[in-house]
Amino acid sequence: MILQPRFKDSPHFKHFWEKGNGKQLIDFSGAEVNFKDFEKFSRYFYHVDEVGDEVVKEVYFTKKFHEASREIENYIRNGVSETDAVPDSVKKLFSQTQQIPDWLDYSLLKSGAELCMRSNVDSLISLRDYCLIGGYDYAYLNKPLTATEALKKGAVKRLSETLDFWVNATRYDALQIHAKGYEFAIKTRLIHSYARLSIKKYDKEWDTENWGEPINSWDMMATYIGFSLVFLHSLQKLGNTFSEEEEKGIFHLWKYVGYLLGIPEQLLPDSKKQATEFFHLWTSVQPPSDKDSILLAHSLLNESLENPILKFKFQRTNLRYLHICCTWFLLDDEVCKRLQIPEVLNRKLFPKTKIIFNKIYDTIVSRDARIKKGDKDQMKVLEDYLRVTKNSNFRQNNTGQPV
């Protein structure tokens, strides 16, 4: 199938890149956006992680789900060699993930992890109120979530899983082979394959030509640009500063996570300039929000009201208000309107206060102290979420698929 940049002349695309967050990303990164490399990247809309898919077919589809999960955990924690009596697909997967790429720089991984930790709650605000909710504006990107009935699962559970993955991938030495972040990357890769194969088997209405393959490589690239480029831009908007080394570190960290997840290396950017140029091409095949986008966005906004971590209703209502303020501050007004984000009073007050606080805090507290405090505070938030969701990686629906 031949793909065209079909939305490049659409109002939503032009506004984003000429006046909205896209224009801000160009200014932030110094990117030069055009369509000369479109064909080079667009084929990945129909490309998937075949290695991960084969593992799911040979392991998960041949035994009970919990037995397959236990088997994979054993491979992750103990490694796989060429002489082991395991399926060929498993050997292929682990020969790739156990092979350290020549470009990997552990000092850059450390710098990226330190920026994630020292940004403390701003990291979590960025992930939630810019990266996640902003991603809901891309209607085709969300089709796998709709197909796997993510709304039935609930935003508390979805947020908990995203947080669990992100925190465990961004600690010191988290991505060493057999470490926690490495384990999360492999498990997430196979969750994607399981979901993709389930969609292809059960969803007779999946529109491959328009939506691409379910959880395709190009959509995966865009998702991980969210964790690097969009994340960095959000931190900057909230008044955080970062060194050139930390900036390189964020891109390097997510490049390696993407490598472990089976995303083709040529789709994994090394810099904010490259990431913005890649992202520009991808957005040209995405229509704006649809009704599913709005449902997903409102489910996330209302997560604060449903989540029992905070004891009193007024606390939960106030937290929802603060997230709405940050969403309006971080995203385009046009995107917020499309997603029907509620209008609230004094919506700039909290983000502007946060910017002032960050500038003072960065001046009077040492970098090492900020890293330690951020690590501790983020781990506490994760523990609270895992406590209320009971740390289940999958929830089965009545078809036996993970959702």
Task: Tell me briefly what this model is.
This protein is an all-alpha fold. It has helices at 11-18, 21-29, 38-42, 50-58, 65-78, 88-97, 106-118, 120-135, 143-147, 150-153, 155-169, 180-202, 208-211, 217-237, 244-260, 272-283, 291-301, 303-306, 313-330, 333-338, 349-364, 367-389.
Indicate the overall shape: globular
Instruction: Count every helix, treating DSSP H or I runs of 4 or more residues as helices.
Output: 22
Helix-and-strand structural type: mainly alpha
- What average pLDDT do the residues reach? 94
Beta-strand residue percentage: under 5%
Largest sheet: none
Question: Alpha-carbon distance between the termini?
Answer: 29 Å
Poorly predicted sequence stretches spanning 5 or more consecutive residues: 391-403
Q: Please estimate the helix content.
A: 55-70%
Number of strands: 0
H-E string: HHHHHHHHHHHHHHHHHHHHHH
Cα Rg: 20 Å
Domain ER-bound oxygenase mpaB/mpaB'/Rubber oxygenase catalytic: 153-342
Organism: Chryseobacterium shigense
GO molecular function, one term: oxidoreductase activity
InterPro entries: Lcp-like, MPAB/Lcp_cat_dom
Explained architecture:
The chain has helices at 11-18, 21-29, 38-42, 50-58, 65-78, 88-97, 106-118, 120-135, 143-147, 150-153, 155-169, 180-202, 208-211, 217-237, 244-260, 272-283, 291-301, 303-306, 313-330, 333-338, 349-364, 367-389. It is mainly alpha-helical and 403 residues long. It has a domain at 32-48 and 105-164 and 204-389.
